[in-house]
Amino acid sequence: MGEARLKVVAAGPLVTVQDAGRTGYMRFGVAASGPMDRLSHAAGNVALGNAPEASGIEISMGGLVLECVSGTLSLAVTGADCLVETCGDSLGSWNVISLSPGERLSIRAGHKGSWAYLAFAGNLESQEWLGHSATHSTSGFGGGALSAGQVLTVRDAALREDRHGAIERPAIAASEAIRVVMGPQDRFFDPSALSALQEQPFRLSAQFDRMGVRLDGPKLSIDGALSIPSEPVAKGAIQVAGDGTPTVLLADHQTTGGYPKIATVISTDLDRISQMRAGDVVHFEAVSPEQAVSIARDKALKMQVYLEEVAVPRGTLAQRLMRENLISGAVSETPD
Amino acid sequence: MPQARFTAVSDHAVLVQLGDEISDKINLEIQSLDRAIAAAGINGFLESIPAFVNILVVFDPLVTDHGSIEAAIKPLLADVSAVQGRGTERVVRVCYDLDIAPDLSEVAAQAGLSEDTVINMHLGASYRVGMYGFAPGYAYLSGVNEAIQVPRKPSALRDVPAGSVIIAGPQCLVTTLTMPTGWSIIGRSPTEILTDNPRHPFLFDVGDTVRFERIDRATFEAEKGLRHG
C-alpha cells in the first residue's frame, strides 16, 4: 500500500469528483449532488472492497484519459457502456482493471448511457465541502471538475488482484416506463396535459446536465395564468415552464423554484432516466404514493443483495482457474 | 391554528402548505412549524425545507411513509403561531460605491429619490430570512422598504460577482456565487454567507433577522482581501 498519482491527460466537461452526496442542507439552498447513477457508483466501489459511498469520478460522455505517474492500483469502471482502453487492451465498462506507472487509461463514450464511474482501490484525495467530496456542478463546490494537467492522488492505493475481472451488472427488474407520483401542482394543469404526460412519448433534449434534463414532446399547458410562490423542490420534480416545456430536475437541482410541478419521478427510477441520452424516448407512468414507497423498499432490498454479491472478492487468477477446472470437472454436481 | 394542506411528493417527501399568498403571517407560521418539526423527533424524518408558504418534509421511505409523516405533523399545527422566533440578529456589511452598485442610480430614479436616500432606506430596515433557495447560501431576506421596491429588470445581467447585494420587490439577497441575476445590484458586501466554519457553515438560519451596516471602500477592500488572502 502506498500512494498512487494519476495525471489527467484529457477530461471532457462535467467530469467530476463524486461521493454519495451531502444530504441535509437543502434548507440552505444546497442540493445533495452525488452521482447521477447512484447504484453504478456504489457498485464500482464495493467491487474494489471500498465503502459504497467512497469518492470516485463521474465521467460524462466527454470522456477521460488518465496516465499513471506513480504507484500501482486497481480501478473499477461502471455505469454507462464505454470504451475502456489500457495497455493496448480494449474492453468495456463493468470491469476491474489495474494501472501501473507509465500506463494510460482512456474511457470514452460507448453506445449507451450518459454517465460512467471510475472507482479507485484506495482513497481519492479530494476537496470536501460540508463534509463531502460530491461536486455541485454550478458552484464547483466539493471535489470539483477535472481538467487536463491536474494530478489525482490516491492514498492507500492497493492492487487487489482477487477483485480483477468483470463486475456483475445489476439485473434489477425495472419497468420500461419511468414512474412518477403526480403533483404536487397537478391540479393546476389542463386535464389534457395530465393525460399527455402519462400517455404520450417524450424525448430527452440536449439540454441535459447535472441540474436536469429538458424534455421535447407535447406542451403541458397550465390551466389559466399561474404564479406560485417560490417553494421547495424535490429531486425528480418535473417542473413546467410558462411555455409548457417540462424539465426533470436531477442531482444538482435548484432547491426552490416558482414553476409548477406536474409530477415527480420516483427515486427508484432516477438512475435510469439519468442514464438515458438526448433523443431517447421516455414514457411516464403514474403510480400512487403508497406504490412508490413500496417500490422504493423493494428496490433497496434488491440493491443491498446485489451490492453484497459484488463486494465478494472473486479470488486470484490462480484460484479462479482452479475453481473453473473444478466446476467443469468431476465435482460439478456439488452445490458449492 | 392554521389550516394545512398535505401533498405527497414522490416516494420520500410531503409538502405541507399553510397558504397560497406570500405574507409575513404565513411565513412566520411556516417557521414556527419548521421549529416544531425539528423538535418533534419524528421517526424516519430526514430534513425539512421551509419556504414562504410551505415546507417540504423529507423522510426515509424505508422507515416511514407519507401517511405516517402527515399524522405526525398534524398535532404540531395546534401550537403553530405567527410569532417571531428567537432568531439571531446577523449583521451584513455593505459598501454602496457606485462602481460596485451599478443599479443604485436606476433604483433611485425609479423611486424618485436620491441615491443617499435609497441607501439610508436600505440601511434603515430590519430584514428577516424567509427561506434559502436558487443556489447554495442564497437567503431571501424580506423587509425592503416599500419606497425603494422595484420590479425585476427585464433581462438578467451575467457574471454578477459573489457578495453583491441585490433587491427585487420586497426581497433582498446577498449573493454567494458569480451568477446571472435580474435583480437590481445596489451594493457589495465582504461578509461571508458561506462561513467556512464546519459547525455553522451558513451565516443565517431561516428566521434570523438581518441588519445592514455601511462600510467605506477601504474597509470593504480590506475585509475582502482578508477573506481571500
Number of domains of chain B: 2
Mean pLDDT of chain B: 94
* Main beta sheet strand tally, sense and closure of chain B: 7 strands, mixed
Mean pLDDT of chain A: 93
Task: Determine the structural class of chain B based on helices, strands and strand pairing.
Answer: alpha+beta
Q: What summary fits the major beta sheet of chain A?
A: 8 strands, mixed
Major β-sheet strand ordering of chain A = 22-15-16-19-18-21-14-23
- SS element count, helices of chain B: 5
- Spans of chain A of at least 5 consecutive residues whose pLDDT stays below 50 are 329-336
Radius of gyration of chain A over alpha carbons?
A: 21 Å
H-E string of chain A: EEHEEEEEEEEEEEEHEEEEEEEHEEHH
The helix fraction of chain B, in percent, is 10-25%
Principal-axes shape call of chain A: globular
H/E order of the elements of chain B? Answer: EEHEEHEHHEEEEEEEEH
CATH fold group of the largest domain in chain B: Cyclophilin
State the name of the first-level CATH class of the largest domain in chain B: Mainly Beta
Structure characteristics:
heterodimer, A: 336 residues, alpha+beta, Cyclophilin, 2 domains, 8-stranded mixed sheet, 17% helix, B: 229 residues, Gyrase A, domain 2, 7-stranded mixed sheet, elongated
Task: Outline the structure in words.
The complex is a heterodimer of chains A (336) and B (229). The longest helix of chain A is centred in the C-terminal third of the chain and has 22 residues, at 289-310. In chain A, strand 15 and strand 16 form a beta hairpin. Chain A is built from five helices and 23 strands. The model of chain A is unreliable at 329-336 (pLDDT under 50). Chain A has 336 residues and is an alpha+beta fold. Chain B has helices at residues 24-40, 66-73, 104-111, 115-124, 217-228; strands at 5-9, 13-17, 45-50, 54-59, 89-94, 127-132, 139-142, 157-160, 164-168, 171-174, 179-181, 184-188, 209-214. Chain B folds into two domains: 5-79, 2-Layer Sandwich (Gyrase A, domain 2), CATH 3.30.1360; 89-228, Cyclophilin, CATH 2.40.100.10. Chain B is an alpha+beta fold. The model of chain B has no long low-confidence stretch (mean pLDDT 94). In chain B, the strands form three sheets. A seven-stranded mixed β-sheet of chain B has the order 5-13-6-7-10-9-12, with helices on one face. The chains are: A alpha+beta (336), B alpha+beta (229). Chain A binds chain B through residues 23-30, 130-131, 136, 138-139, 141, 181, 183-184, 228-237, 254-257, 264-268, 289-290, 292-293, 295-297, 300, and chain B through 7-13, 15, 20-22, 46-56, 58, 61-62, 65-67, 131-140, 177, 198, 201-202, 206.
